[in-house]
Amino acid sequence: MNSITIQTISQRRRRIVLFTLFVAMAALLVQAVHLQHYKRDFLQHEGAIRYQRLMPILASRGVITDRNGEVLAVSSPVNTVWADPRKTKIDDQQLSELANLLETDKRRLSDRILARPDRAFVYLKRHIEPQIGKRVKDLAIPGVHLRHEYHRYYPWSEVSSHVLGFTDIDDRGQEGIELAYNDWLGGLQGEKSVIKDRKGRVVKDLPRYRAPNPGKNVKLSLDIRIQYQAYKELMSAVKKEGARSGSIVVLDPHNGEVMAMVNYPHFNPNNRASLHSQRIRNRAVTDLFEPGSTVKPFAVAAAIENGLFSPETMIDTSPGWYMVRGHTIQDEHNYGKIDLSRVIIKSSNVGAAKIALAMSAQELWNVYRRVGFGEHPGSGFPGEVGGLLSDYHGWNKIERATLAFGYGLSVTPLQLAQAYSILANGGLKTTATFLTTDNPKAGPRVMSAKTCRKIREMLEGVVSAEGTAKRAGIKGYRVAGKTGTVHKSTKNGYAKDRYVSVFAGMAPASNPRLVTVVMLDEPSKGQYFGGVVAAPVFAKVMAEALRLLGVPPDDLPTLQANTAARAGSA
């Protein structure tokens, strides 16, 4: 091969190499342009998600206060410890220190991490104090991180638990006011963009940031001072009388505001171990009972409203019993001929039955319905029930008679308190509410003011020396109310030895400021009459409530006479 041939081959090879290099460079240039122009957003996103993260910023839940600004529920900042098992590297010494800080077993903690090697997120401990969280952070364990959260705290614990309810571990409302106003209280979480290193540690905050919107506060109508008094007296009564449970409702009859609502047994919302279904429900709005003789004032009111009777009308209750379609309606004693006031004062079943039978079924039903029996109170409380009042078209004679003294219909303590509020405020129907009302609207008139005044006068006699509720009296105040002692209904009929004891009343009777209903379920230590078991609870709660609210006495002559008598005796 001559030199010309060798030179020609060499030139071809050089051209091939140069061409190949050119093509490669062109391809690289085209690919670079493609990536920079067409794939830029995709590649930037893919790169960012490998080191850039959006971290949520939790919003603090709104505060719940009573009507005077006393804090009933508040969220405090806490830390939660979590791990990414794929990246967690922990030696035995660090494991022991972490287990000690988290107050857990070392082996259990190790199993929790190692048993989930493919998981990216595992909770190690929820809701620890920030100072403990700082010590966990100082351990600098790869793959173990802190998360900022909030923990709900209830300063008054059991005292207000049934009204407030509680939140779950993620601070979402589960019962009570916390559930009813969850959206209002919960707020909206924010977020921020950060850069994390390969160990998951935040190394830089980026400009992208959305501030959280904290939840709004809720001001309840409760007065925690009255609430505490009701809690203390109810708990004492339930234990003293051996009752299964009990409820108290205190209402402002002029606007429907719930001033206090307590149930027993109670629960502590700060202790999740106490959250049992039988304890957490608000019995005052969810549990039904037959109201017994506490309904008699409304039967009498129906007779007066329909023009069939006046307070002076005489009813013959002799000989102390009355047969209706083969059923015997009986009084404690033979009261003979008595007027409507005495029917209420002596709680005559015979008198009430005869009054009801003198009316049509529709006339009695209309009044019961207008005062709210068989309807939801409208408070919006979760689980609220409307009670039972059947349609009057299906009533026979004995049903109409027994409805006059509280058998055959069912109510909740809140419903009964709402009905008595109508008698207290002069015939206007209010809607029960757990929130303060700055400008309450007048409710519809469902009963004449004259009839309400007459019924209140009759109910004052119940609390007198000759009535069934002497123990409901409050020194210096005129009190109006009615007792109820009800045989409990069972699958085999009405039990002879199981009772519901009730007292519903108001004070001061001249211009009622508060209405209170007390109900004890199955007192078992001998006493069971509403005037003996429930009335004293009413008196103690109402006396303290009137004092706290600064309500002036309306029975000064009696108070002064008693004071003078005591001074003379001394």
Explained architecture:
By secondary structure, the chain is α+β, with helices and mostly antiparallel strands. Helices cover 38% and strands 22% of the residues. It has helices at 3-38, 40-48, 92-101, 106-114, 130-138, 161-164, 176-180, 182-186, 224-241, 277-280, 283-286, 296-305, 340-345, 349-357, 361-370, 397-403, 413-425, 449-462, 530-533, 535-548, 556-569, and strands at residues 52-57, 64-65, 71-83, 122-128, 144-153, 166-167, 173-175, 190-196, 202-210, 218-219, 245-251, 258-264, 314-316, 321-324, 327-330, 337-339, 480-490, 493-507, 514-521. Strands 2, 3, 4, 5 and 10 form a 5-stranded mixed β-sheet that branches. Strands 12-11-19-18-17 form a 5-stranded antiparallel β-sheet, sandwiched between helices.
Q: Main β-sheet: number of strands, strand sense, barrel status?
A: 5 strands, mixed
Mean pLDDT: 88
Count of the separate structural domains: 2
* CATH homologous superfamily label of the largest domain: DD-peptidase/beta-lactamase superfamily
CATH class group of the largest domain? Alpha Beta
Strand content: 15-25%
Looking at how many chains there are and whether they match, the oligomeric state comes to single chain
Number of strands: 19
What is the distance, rounded to the nearest whole angstrom, between the alpha carbons of the first and last residues?
A: 151 Å
CATH architecture of the largest domain: 3-Layer(aba) Sandwich
**CATH fold name of the largest domain:** Beta-lactamase
Low-confidence stretches: none
